[in-house]
Each structure stands twice: as C-alpha cells, then as structure tokens.
C-alpha cells in the first residue's frame, strides 16, 4: 500500500500526462458533439452518435493512451535508471512496482470513462451504458488486454524514448482499427476483418454494444480474452527488470 501511494503521488505530479489521458477524450467528445450537428441527430438505428459511438471510442482512446504510452514509458524509465535493479536487492520485489502501475493506470482509465459518461449526460443527455453488468466485464477484460500489450511494449523498449516511439507506432493503428477515426461500419470489408482480430476493434464494438443496451457478441469477448492471454504470456516471458 505504501508503494502504491508513492507511485500514485508520482503519477499525480505528472499532471500534463494525466490531463492528456483524461482531458483529451472528454474534450474531443464535447468539441465534436457541439460542433458537428449530425453527431446529435438520430441515425437510422435510432441512436445518436454521441449516445454510443463517441463515448465508447473516446474510452478506447483513453485506455490506449495509458497502455501504449504512459505505462511503457514509466516502466522503461525505471529500468533505464536502475530503479528496478535496486528494488531487486530489497524485500520489495520489483513486481510490486509493476502491480502498482497497473492499478494506477486502471484507476485513471476508470476515472476517464466515468467523466465521459457524466459529460455525455450533462452536455447531450446521453444515457449511461444500458447493459451495466456486461459493460463492467467488457471494460475490465479489454483494459487488462490493453495493459498486457503495454507491458509487451515496456519489455521490448530499451529506453524511455524508445518506449514512447514504439507505443506511438502501436497506438495509432489500433486507434484506426478501433474506429476512433472511422466508424467500423464504414470500413471496407478487408479492413473490418483486420479490425475484428485486432483486439482494439472487438473491444470498442463490445463497449458500444453494451452502451446501446445489447450484450456483447461472444466472438468479440473471445478475441479480447485471447489478446489478454497472448500479450500477457509474451510480457511475462520477455519482461526484464534490468
């Protein structure tokens, strides 16, 4: 608990990163929703874009930022500066640092998603996720898969700068495949097939389905769970403390 409190204090001191992780998705939701009239108009499905698509993709954006940029950079910095090596000589195992970072980033992602829900409700009258139980399950499963991917990036990066570069190379394609820039429904069929197996695509679609009041599709849960297993196994086998 002391280690978690210390890591949380260090994380809060880096307020630009914190504001970027939380403020960017919320700001995009408000700016796009208020400036583009079609986002607040009813679609053929009976839903508005600000009701389901925008909040679910902005939640994905926040989690991708934390997983592909923030988490790998912090762990790579600790390894580069010898923090993890020093901890290995104490009763506090370095794995506890890793666990603390995962919990902190999960907390930040949860806060960002909660702020998205409240902002959407206050600004546009958008309802919170209607399938609440499924939404929590999908959120935790998808976040764990994204964090496992972040640990893989942290394992491969030789330095903090490299972690940021590799994270950007991974994050932006996943943003596209997750429908942040182009809704999955408008993607060409070959691109949508790639999106269906990118983990980010099924995660975003499952979030959107639960937001709209539908249970997630089983195939989407299977792909996200498979991503968690694969990324987690690679991270465990390749992660270096020094």
From TrEMBL:
Q: Which GO terms describe its cellular component?
A: ATP-binding cassette (ABC) transporter complex
Gene Ontology biological-process annotations: response to antibiotic
Q: Please give the start and end residues of each transmembrane region.
A: 20-39, 59-78, 102-126, 132-156, 163-182, 218-236
Molecular function terms, GO-annotated: ABC-type transporter activity
- Give the matching InterPro entries: ABC-2_transporter, ABC2_TM, ABC2_TM_bact-type, ABC_2_transport
* Source species, domain of life: Bacteria
- Which residue range or ranges hold the ABC transmembrane type-2 domain? 16-242
The way it spans or sits in the membrane comes to: Multi-pass membrane protein
Q: Which of UniProt's keywords are assigned here?
A: Antibiotic resistance, Cell membrane, Membrane, Transmembrane, Transmembrane helix, Transport
- Tell me where in or outside the cell this protein is found: Cell membrane; Membrane
Location, primary (coarse class): membrane
Please give the family membership noted in the entry: Belongs to the ABC-2 integral membrane protein family.
Q: Which PANTHER family match?
A: DOXORUBICIN RESISTANCE ABC TRANSPORTER PERMEASE PROTEIN DRRC-RELATED, TRANSPORT PERMEASE PROTEIN
Name this polypeptide is given: Transport permease protein
**Annotated source species:** [Actinomadura] parvosata subsp. kistnae
């Amino acid at each position: 608990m002391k280690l978690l409190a210390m890591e949380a204090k260090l994380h809060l001191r880096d307020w630009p990163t914190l504001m970027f992780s939380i403020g960017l998705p919320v700001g995009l939701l408000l700016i796009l929703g208020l400036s583009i009239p079609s986002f607040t108009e009813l679609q053929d499905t009976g839903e508005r874009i600000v009701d389901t698509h925008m909040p679910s993709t902005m939640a994905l954006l926040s989690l991708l930022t934390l997983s592909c940029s923030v988490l790998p950079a912090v762990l790579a910095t600790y390894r580069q500066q010898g923090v993890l090596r020093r901890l290995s000589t104490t009763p506090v195992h370095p794995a506890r640092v890793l666990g603390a970072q995962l919990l902190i980033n999960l907390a930040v992602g949860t806060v960002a998603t909660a702020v998205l829900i409240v902002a959407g409700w206050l600004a546009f009258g958008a309802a919170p996720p209607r399938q609440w139980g499924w939404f929590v399950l999908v959120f935790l499963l998808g976040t764990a898969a994204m964090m496992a991917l972040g640990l893989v990036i942290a394992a491969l990066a030789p330095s903090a700068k490299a972690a940021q570069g590799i994270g950007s190379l991974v994050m932006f394609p996943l943003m596209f495949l997750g429908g942040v820039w182009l809704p999955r429904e408008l993607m060409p069929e070959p691109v949508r097939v790639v999106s269906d197996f990118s983990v980010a695509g099924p995660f975003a679609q499952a979030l959107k389905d639960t937001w709209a009041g539908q249970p997630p599709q089983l195939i989407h849960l299977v792909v996200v769970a498979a991503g968690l297993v694969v990324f987690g196994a690679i991270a465990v086998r390749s992660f270096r403390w020094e």
